[in-house]
Amino acid sequence: MLQRGAMGPGVTALQEALQVLGFPPGNVDGVFGLGTEAAVLAFQKSAGLLADGIAGPRTLSDLGIVPGESPSPIPGVTVVMVSMMFPHTPIGNIKQNLPVVLHSLVKADITGKPMVLTALATIRAETESFEPIPEGASRYNSSPNGHPFDLYDHRRDLGNTGPPDGLRYRGRGYIQLTGRFNYGKYGARLGMDDELIVQPELACNRDIAADLLVAFLQDRQEAIEEAILYQELSRVRRLVNGGTHGLGRFIDAYHVGDRLLT
């Protein structure tokens, strides 16, 4: 991890790599100053990386300086740690579901601390029981005198086309995937073709629900990491949920996890 103030041969190697790739850092002197920081930022933006001006494992790897994957915090994500993030959740639910979620994160190579914590905090905000469950009827999705989920039936933003789409494509899973459009899009992403459209209840299958959670976050990864860089957790929640539902639970879980996971 190289950042402003660092000195030594590692910084020299970084400066030389930046120079070769067309991002001149100024003097190649082994001192990580403002010029090197600006060059790192420019390279990160060009490479589609989180632009924080810090040459961590992903940036160094893309520069060709160090091979291999970024260090992952996942070995430190234990049932005990997560139970502290989910203080009202039966520990048995965490024991059953945590390994499935972590497996999906590793499979998708989403193993950096911000995204791992975002995934777990999202589950707490969406389904605090840490189980993939279907959405329940409420005043937000069902009118006082109508059938369950009738307020979703004609939601064009969700791709719904009328009854019974509201009920059929209500929220499900760890992330509460909602709407005909999302069931089709993310079912296809998982290689299921139209299977989720035909059998939407499959979104509550543990393995499928975990893969859906990860795919949904993966689509927003760069924006999520940028928001976390500026400590804008409410923005992270909006990127995932579209609003602030469960924001308090999300922030609490993220901060607890951030404190426990070193």
What does this structure look like?
- 51% of the residues lie in helices and 2% in strands.
- The mean pLDDT is 93.
- It contains 13 helices and two strands.
- It starts with 8 loop residues before the first helix and ends with a helix.
- With 262 residues, it is an all-alpha fold.
- Helix 4 packs antiparallel against helix 13, helix 6 runs antiparallel to helix 13 (247-260) and helix 11 (221-229) runs antiparallel to helix 12 (233-241).
- It has helices spanning 9-20, 34-47, 57-62, 79-85, 91-107, 113-126, 165-168, 180-189, 195-198, 206-218, 221-229, 233-241, 247-260; strands at 133-134, 172-173.
- It folds into three domains: 9-62, Muramoyl-pentapeptide Carboxypeptidase, domain 1, CATH 1.10.101.10; 74-132 and 212-260, no CATH class; 133-204, Endochitinase, domain 2.
